[in-house]
Each structure stands twice: as structure tokens, then as C-alpha cells.
Specification:
The chain is mainly alpha-helical. It is built from 6 helices and 2 strands. It is a multi-pass membrane protein.
Length: about 130
């Protein structure tokens, strides 16, 4: 029986994606940058309208993801760092995938566990992946 880690030459190879450049699997640095932008934007909006509330920040963060992933292909943070969230099998991502992905992302733990293709559990469960755009 073959080990998955030895069958992939690079992250995304099993998915038919290029090793680098446009349409390749997003690496950790860009993902972290997108997350940081979204978290900062959520905190800023929370501060402006709710005099900063941690609950409001989480709700705003979730709304940014749920509203923007199906419409513009990613959250504002994703788009600013050149990433796009896509359905792993191609086609429109739909409405339920961003919801599942976001709920799991808010738990943070699933986002920190990756498979050989650098897809977090939140992406695997939602059937999505983040690619460079």
C-alpha cells in the first residue's frame, strides 16, 4: 500500500494543479496574510460600529467569508493577497460550501490540520481549495 506523502511530487499534484504560479495551491504565507487582513478588517468594522466586541468581530469575519466567497471567489483578505477559494471539483462553489468552510474556520483547529495537498480540514470537508489567482 502506497503512502500518500510519497505519491505527490508537490502540493496540488494529485489535484492536477501546477506546482507554482497561477492556479497552484496557495501556500501558508499567503493564507496567513489573507486571514490577518480579514481579522483586522473585522476588528476595525467592529470597533467602528460596536465599540469593539469580540462576538461582533467573529460575526463580521464569518459574514465576510460567507458573502464574498460565492460572489467574488474569496474574502477581501484572500483577494488582496491574490488567492481564490474554488470548488475542488470545479464549477460554482455554491452557497453551502462557504458556510461549512467558515464555521470550521472559526473553530481554527481544522484550519491548522493539512493534508498532503496543503488543504486544511475545513477545505477538505467543504470540498474547496485555495489557489493562487
Amino acid at each position: 500500500m502506497s503512502d500518500e506523502r510519497t505519491t505527490s511530487a508537490y502540493p496540488g499534484a494529485r489535484l492536477g494543479l501546477p506546482e507554482t504560479g497561477r492556479l497552484s495551491i496557495a501556500r501558508f504565507g499567503r493564507r496567513l496574510g489573507g486571514y490577518a487582513i480579514d481579522a483586522a478588517l473585522s476588528a476595525l468594522i467592529s470597533f467602528a460600529f460596536f465599540h469593539y466586541s469580540a462576538v461582533a468581530s467573529l460575526v463580521i469575519f464569518a459574514l465576510l467569508h460567507v458573502l464574498f466567497i460565492p460572489t467574488i471567489g474569496g474574502s477581501p483578505g484572500h483577494r488582496l493577497v491574490g488567492l481564490r477559494v474554488v470548488k475542488a471539483t470545479g464549477g460554482w462553489i455554491g452557497l453551502w460550501r462557504p458556510v461549512v468552510r467558515t464555521v470550521l474556520l472559526l473553530l481554527l483547529f481544522p484550519a491548522l490540520i493539512w493534508n498532503v495537498d496543503h488543504r486544511g480540514l475545513h477545505d477538505v470537508f467543504a470540498g474547496t481549495m485555495i489557489i493562487r489567482w
